[in-house]
Amino acid sequence: MEIKFTWPQGFQSGATHAGFKADQQLDFGWLVSDVPAVAAGVYTKNQFQAAPTQYTRSLIQKGQTLQALVINSGNANSFTGQPGLDNAAQSGHLVAEKLNISSDLVGVASTGVIGKQMPMDKFKDGLAKLTLTSQSQLPEAILTTDTHSKKTCHALTIDGKTVTITGFAKGSGMIHPNMGTTLGFIATDAKIEGSLLQDLLRELIQSSFNQITVDGCMSTNDMVVVLANGQAQNQTLTAKHPEFVSFKKALQTVLINLAKMVAADGEGANKLIEAQVQNAANPVEANQVAKAIVGSNLIKAMLFGEDGNWGRIVQAIGQTQAQLNPNQLDIQIGGIPLVKNSLTVPVDQAALHQILATDKIIITVNLHCGEAQGMAWGCDLTYQYVEINAAYEG
Amino acid sequence: MEIKFTWPQGFQSGATHAGFKADQQLDFGWLVSDVPAVAAGVYTKNQFQAAPTQYTRSLIQKGQTLQALVINSGNANSFTGQPGLDNAAQSGHLVAEKLNISSDLVGVASTGVIGKQMPMDKFKDGLAKLTLTSQSQLPEAILTTDTHSKKTCHALTIDGKTVTITGFAKGSGMIHPNMGTTLGFIATDAKIEGSLLQDLLRELIQSSFNQITVDGCMSTNDMVVVLANGQAQNQTLTAKHPEFVSFKKALQTVLINLAKMVAADGEGANKLIEAQVQNAANPVEANQVAKAIVGSNLIKAMLFGEDGNWGRIVQAIGQTQAQLNPNQLDIQIGGIPLVKNSLTVPVDQAALHQILATDKIIITVNLHCGEAQGMAWGCDLTYQYVEINAAYEG
């Protein structure tokens, strides 16, 4: 059940302006658990993985446990060589010192301009100002070109205990995650086995964050981390726990909600585009076709123009390697059939234009090749996207 | 040697307005050889290959010989089912009848809107008006959103005879060829073995048309066809002919010239972007990295804004699977070093901005992993690209 934003039991956060960004904007924050939490993560597949991404990945792989995450926007600490790695490690150590915990328990994440060293004096100034509160400013502090923060909160009952799952994420350019993703963080007070949490995240990321694209560009800093501190006092979740499936569904909802928020707030976007692929030969191909549709510049520009030129949807589907049935393709936009059995359907243009004028466009495609389903999310391509990226210095 | 535009010996052409496009624009034409010509072709890998593309491919595969090509713009005859295939075949038959040659010798090509049946009455009206001349209007007749025609002409001497190679092509959206490509046609009077010409085209397309991208969208209609009618009377070119290498180089130049013209006139483009990759582990990876750079929306928008944010070049390179050396990457824009051994280089910003203001931007990347080179071409991402594609109905 979706609930009003709150941190799960035993989590606190803080945010401040450290000076990575101008104009007194929030650009620095932390998420801290009262006790060490089971941790799982997925990370970008970009070969130039940024220093904080490498650092946090190695910590989680080693111990599957974190107690705190420190996050900044305004500087990605990416492509910064050994000094960058040293700065990421030092960041973790400074936070550990302030919290009086082991530095192995502090993850680090950064987003912003690539290729500039972290100004560690600003980091220290910021850290001195950070406090622990129950407030919800942290999701604001991690934004770059986002127009608003992305957060979602879900509650469910396990062993009669209330378990809360709270997620937050950022966009909104260089968004084309693979395995890892843009920055996304999920805190829960559920008690769960570490390896199970890692498996679960790896599985669910495929149909959530890995199914969004804003511009086809995979960031060097992508990561999604889940912390589970067990403070809900449920029986430890294993794959056999009778309520494991409910937990999995709730976590999936949180991941998909965040992914959709990132897509809808893509740079310059006016509209969320959702592609629903039905009856693909298998789930991988269903996802592949869905992502090809939301990733097409031509479709993105066409939907900005509120135009229903479905030939571009055919083009995008045909560009994939998915199994297709050339004589049995159905395409709908917003529930209005445009193509049925690979033939044009007469369309009520007034009704179609009414749908194209809304801010969420659903493209449904039936491949008639099997029984698998897939979804993906993206946004339209607008003048503002070009404007933002013609002069982004971070 | 590049020469003024002319058709090779024994080729004539014609162009007219048949009515596929509005406003009396040229939209229909043909290229005809006096005698049957050796023919080679490469075609789109989009799974929804258009009817004329399927039809011409099958003709060339069967006989490696064509005498005429009929080409229209304004209607792609793509995703049109069996009626579309029938119309492509009928188009070839009608042309063969008028020329009094076998219909197996007439290739068909179309470009324009996807999903509409060919108006065969317009085809017939157009065909009635077509004549054979030495004029150069045909390259105009195949354009869609192109701002100007793309043609190039090269001459060389083989066995003491002058051989001419004349190429023309169209862009300018849905450009991301793979194996085949956007429409490109090359006529030559060279005498050459059919299978050798096919092998040559397949090889040279990889480093020319397959290395351009405008928007990442692979068309359903892409094809490049070469006709060689032997009227230059040279000894038949085989792989062992002493001047085969000169012919190969000339054909490569023609293909690359056309490819660059298509990229530079990409929809809405202000600038040609050329990526030069040096010292890659192998040629495939060199081409892959070059194409990733020219294909990045973020880099394309940045160059429209005349901005030199090289972090985006790092991001694009890292997104590939190519072998990289994280501590030894060099990046230059227009010959100005921005990154050396993976470290920022102090830059004369005035000089950089002067280069970024020109209409041809060369990005040079040294991977320090081997000895292979690769190039790719694209264009900037502009407001006009969005504008054109927000309302393209063809």
Give a description of the structure:
Chains A, B: Substrate binds at residues 144, 170, 181, 267, 389. Chains A, B: Pathway: Amino-acid biosynthesis; L-arginine biosynthesis; N(2)-acetyl-L-ornithine from L-glutamate: step 1/4; Amino-acid biosynthesis; L-arginine biosynthesis; L-ornithine and N-acetyl-L-glutamate from L-glutamate and N(2)-acetyl-L-ornithine (cyclic): step 1/1. Chains A, B: One of its GO terms (cellular component) is cytoplasm. Chains A, B: Its EC number is 2.3.1.35, 2.3.1.1. The structure is a homodimer of 394-residue chains. In chain A, strands 1, 2, 3, 4, 5, 6, 7 and 8 form an eight-stranded mixed beta sheet that branches. The first copy, chain A, has a six-stranded mixed beta sheet with strand order 12-11-10-13-9-14. In chain A, helix 2 (81-99) links the parallel strand 3 (65-73) and strand 4. In chain A, helix 1 (51-63) packs across helix 2 (81-99), helix 2 (81-99) packs parallel to helix 3 and helix 7 crosses helix 9 (311-319). The longest helix of chain A is centred in the middle third of the chain and has 21 residues, at 244-264. Chain A has two domains: 11-264, L-amino peptidase D-ALA esterase/amidase, CATH 3.60.70; 272-390, Ubiquitin-like (UB roll), CATH 3.10.20.340. Chain A is built from eleven helices and 14 strands. With 394 residues, chain A is of the alpha+beta class.
